[in-house]
């Protein structure tokens, strides 16, 4: 039975890859929508500044990038963690073999 458990643990990262990909895509979409709504509340504008937008200043561009990055990181971490916990609850195995960070 110990061999079966070790094999299951080795296969889990492979099984989790497509799930992790789907969760990553979903979290990116959610983060993008959240950022757009946040920017609209902060600046009362529909579109956030782009780094190559000639009419926007450094401060506005860097503020938008910082807010977008923070929202993306929080949403991605929350979705990744929730997915990993769900896998652990359903299989009894943590979906990644080591305790390290993302690739």
Describe this structure in words.
The protein is an all-alpha fold. 74% of the residues lie in helices and 0% in strands. The chain has helices at 2-43, 58-91. The mean pLDDT is 84. This is DUF4235 domain-containing protein.
Topology readout:
Elements: H1 2-43, H2 58-91
Helix pairs in contact: 1-2
Pfam families: DUF4235
Protein name: DUF4235 domain-containing protein
InterPro entries: DUF4235 (IPR025329)
As a percent range, the share of helical residues equals over 70%
Low-pLDDT ranges: none
Q: What's the pLDDT, averaged over the residues?
A: 84
Total helices: the number is: 2
Topology as a string of helices (H) and strands (E): HH
Count of DSSP strands: 0
Largest sheet: none
Assign an overall shape: elongated
Features:
2 helices; transmembrane; 74% helix; transmembrane helix; 103 residues; single chain; DUF4235; elongated; membrane; mainly alpha
């Amino acid at each position: 039975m110990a061999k079966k458990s070790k094999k299951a643990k080795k296969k889990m990262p492979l099984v989790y890859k497509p799930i992790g990909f789907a969760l990553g895509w979903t979290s990116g979409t959610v983060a993008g929508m959240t950022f757009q709504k946040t920017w609209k509340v902060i600046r009362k504008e529909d579109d956030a500044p782009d780094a190559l937008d000639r009419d926007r200043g450094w401060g506005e561009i860097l503020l938008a990038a910082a807010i977008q990055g923070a929202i993306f990181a929080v949403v991605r971490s929350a979705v990744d963690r929730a997915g990993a916990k769900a896998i652990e609850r359903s299989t009894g195995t943590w979906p990644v073999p080591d305790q390290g960070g993302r690739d």
